[in-house]
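Hello K.,

You asked for the raw outputs rather than the summary table, so here they are, unedited. I folded two proteins back to back in the same session to keep the settings identical. This is the first:
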Amino acid sequence: MLRNEWYLDEPDLVEDRRRCWRLLDHFNATGPDDDTEREAILGKLVGRLGDDVIVMPRFQCSYGTQSTLGHRSFVSHDALFMDDAAITIGDDVRIGPRTQLLPAQHPVDDHARRQEGWERPLPISIGDSTCLGGA
């Protein structure tokens, strides 16, 4: 998975996801005035956390460690980062509510491999000063 090659789910990946979900449960249960606690949890969750980042609950991701958030970036409510591959968010990025970043590919022509659960993650990189959201 980390080499962005075709892979099947394994027990160590399941445990990594569970670690992430435990942190997300705490993050998403914080109150409106718990900015410091949310920042501390994000620091344990993501691979790199820039300065002055705001991520609004309810946030979801697969592993956390595959995501990096640049300085002064903002992620609105209900974002989903399926970070099976690296998801890199640049500086000063604004991500609107319910945005989904989904790097996983599944076999299209090989039905047997798709049924077995094979997938391949391809990295996502969002450049500085980008805005993603609905109109």
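The second followed immediately with the same parameters:
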Amino acid sequence: MSKGNSTKITDELYQYMLDHNPPLDSVQRGLVARTYASFPDVAGMQSAEEQGPLLAFLVRLTGARHIVEVGTFTGFSALSMAQALPADGRIIACDVSEEWTAYGRQAWEEAGVADRIELRIAPALETLRAMPAEPHIDMAYVDADKERQISYWEELVPRLRPGGLIVTDNTLYHGTVLDESATGSAAGVRAFNDHVAADPRMDSVLLAISDGLTLSRKR
């Protein structure tokens, strides 16, 4: 095996990367800070800072107008994608917590994009299964319950338009995907990765971005 990149991401190099990416705006930065201050024990559930500009870039690259987000937490990723949407674009954001998503609602209002985000508080599978069955989704971002990821995938793929994109977070899951005896969320991610790699409907790449990010394009 030839390992092409042995660069160690130090704190200094990570900051260098952030400094050469599009900066977070004041609303995004405020939301990140409030999340860490209010939920220090689970703030790691928030998408990494570099993923905000990346998600916005992918929205623009695909020309997405109809986005589905599975797992919203405090709303940073939805905010980043909504800001990249055209005025008539929409995100359906799925989450089960009124407490966490209240922070997102506030930030979306501050940023002037609240009208582009429809928050649905319910189990995500219920929300997905209630959507029209025909292909109509341009892009999806999945960052939720790792043990249900295959189920989310199977609801999203048939509803994704040809050329549409699914972005899945945490697909390296802190390195635990290497553990063949993994249980719980780690086992769920391992099974999901195998499922995605074998799916003939999609072209997928797993990238070592943050905690692992898989990009999947519908054929």
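The chain has a mean pLDDT of 96.

Happy to rerun anything if the numbers look odd on your end.

Regards,
P.
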